[in-house]
Design a protein that fits this description.
The protein folds into three domains: 4-91, Rossmann fold, CATH 3.40.50.720; 95-305, Mur-like, catalytic domain (UDP-N-acetylmuramoyl-L-alanine:D-glutamate ligase), CATH 3.40.1190.10; 314-446, Mur ligase, C-terminal domain (Protein-Tyrosine Phosphatase, Chain A, Alpha-Beta Complex). It is 35% helix and 23% strand. The protein contains 17 helices and 20 strands. Strands 7-8-6-9-10-11-12-13-14 form a nine-stranded mixed beta sheet, with helices on one face. Strands 15-16-20-17-18-19 form a six-stranded mixed beta sheet, sandwiched between helices. A five-stranded parallel beta sheet has the order 3-2-1-4-5.
């Protein structure tokens, strides 16, 4: 009898893991506490993979030799605690899939900017003609692609939850963009979340690169007591030039690497994704591309042509002189800070949702300077009102995207920007941040 692997969660990550596990000869069982989406049921049926939904068969799961847990499932879930009690190894899809590929692995994490940086890196490598897959938090699951494709490189967007389940993986290129409080509903304390982010550098050796933002106080403080043999490549906006790394000087992005020996530069005005935060994202992606000896012309062209990801500072429309920007992916305070900082016009800010233990204090100076009206889009807006009622002219509650847009439009003035950048999760009124962003865009078009 073959070894039994139980997979918790039947979304993209879980189903991809099931396909790979079956291909590798394991006896596979997929268990989901909720109802499984029809498209994933059809796929499990197609491959003849056994599954259950609307609950867990604890006895069967506890008989597994290994459990692959989808990142959305908390370590505090009863079935996870039950498995831990009988010492069953619990790993992530990333850990599982990495053991079945010889591809070069590029991992990107950070509280904010990881999707943009991942997509930008993937875009440059693909433009250069490399055999590259896009996975992790974006695209098809890493496990699915390892099972069905044969890429030479993978660009992986890695959340803290995915990193928590990684133990033996050593990334060839590990990027840490920034760290700020997030997901404090899932972690015991902030330090635990920080430690999760630092796992991006886990197991790296001197032949592998650890690329990090030297302007992020949290990262630099942690690195003082963090040991690694990886090749350290910092990037900075204000503190160049560097012997090795990336920096901005005279409105120009500069990169210098020692191994391989590389010099690269281009004007910030040529970057299609604007704002300081996107310059950081561009520096990280460019360090990787130059390390892979991609032609400088290809890197420049990719940075010139790149379109930002949907729901991240996405310009929607201008109606009667009022601009509308969809930043629904900003599910934490730091992401909203970046968005508010990047908008130059006076702002009507649409914010709110499921508060993940947010501390809004860091936003107050920007709110006072830039925001005239706040439209609170969520079931419970008390914390937002407490934080900002003294900082703005008006705060109004809305219970749908259409209502929020109508209020903002009705109160807006020519030359202002309506910015949806919630600083909160979306699950009180929407399926996810994509649903929130799409409803916002539809509401704007309805104007």
């Amino acid at each position: 009898m073959s070894e039994l692997i139980s997979i918790l969660g039947a979304g993209e990550s879980g189903v991809g893991s099931a396909i790979l596990a079956q291909k590798q000869g394991f006896d596979v069982w997929v268990s989901d506490y909720n109802q499984i989406q029809p498209k994933y049921k059809a796929e499990l049926d197609k491959y003849g993979i056994k599954y259950e939904e609307n609950g867990h068969n604890e006895k069967l799961i506890k008989s597994s030799s290994k459990i692959i847990k989808s990142p959305g499932i908390s370590d505090k879930a009863p079935i996870v605690i039950a498995a831990i009690s009988v010492n069953i190894p619990i790993i992530s899809e990333i850990e599982f899939a990495a053991s079945y590929t010889n591809a070069s692995l590029i991992g990107i994490t950070g509280t904010n900017g990881k999707t943009t940086t991942t997509m930008l890196t993937y875009s440059i490598l693909k433009s250069a003609g490399l055999s590259v897959g896009l996975a992790g938090n974006v695209g098809y699951s890493f496990a699915r692609q390892v099972a069905l494709e044969n890429y030479e490189y993978y660009v992986l967007e890695l959340s803290s939850f995915q990193l928590d389940g990684m133990h033996t993986v050593a990334l060839d290129y590990a990027v840490l963009l920034n760290i700020s409080p997030d997901h404090l509903d899932r972690y015991t304390n902030y330090q635990d979340y920080i430690d999760s982010k630092l796992r991006i550098n886990l197991n790296q050796d001197a032949n592998q690169k650890f690329i990090f933002c030297a302007d992020d106080d949290e990262i630099t403080n942690q690195l003082e007591n963090h040991t690694t043999t990886a090749d350290l490549v910092p990037f900075t906006y204000d503190n160049g030039p560097l012997d090795q790394g990336a920096w901005v000087e005279n409105n120009q992005l500069n990169i210098q690497l020692t191994n391989p020996k590389i010099n690269f530069n281009m004007s910030l005005d040529q970057l299609t994704i604007a704002g300081r935060h996107n310059t950081y994202n561009s520096m990280a992606a460019s360090i990787i591309a130059n390390s892979l000896l991609i032609r400088k012309e290809t890197i420049r062209e990719s940075l010139l042509d790149f379109k930002n990801v949907e729901h991240r500072l996405e310009f929607v429309s201008k109606v009667k002189g009022i601009s509308f920007i969809n930043d629904s992916k900003a599910t934490n305070v730091n992401a909203a800070w970046y968005a508010l900082e990047s908008v130059e016009n006076p702002i009507i800010w649409i914010a709110g949702g499921v508060d993940k233990g947010n501390d809004y204090e860091s936003l107050s100076p920007l709110i006072k300077e830039k925001v005239r009206i706040i439209v609170c889009l969520g079931k419970n807006n008390l914390n937002l009102h407490k934080a900002f009622r003294k900082d703005v002219d008006m705060m109004i509650n809305a219970s749908s995207a259409q209502e929020a847009v109508n209020i903002a439009y009705g109160l807006g003035e020519k030359g202002e920007t309506v910015l949806l950048s919630p600083a909160c999760a979306s699950f009180d009124l929407f399926e996810n941040y994509e649903d929130r962003g799409n409803q916002f865009k539809r509401a704007v078009r309805n104007l």
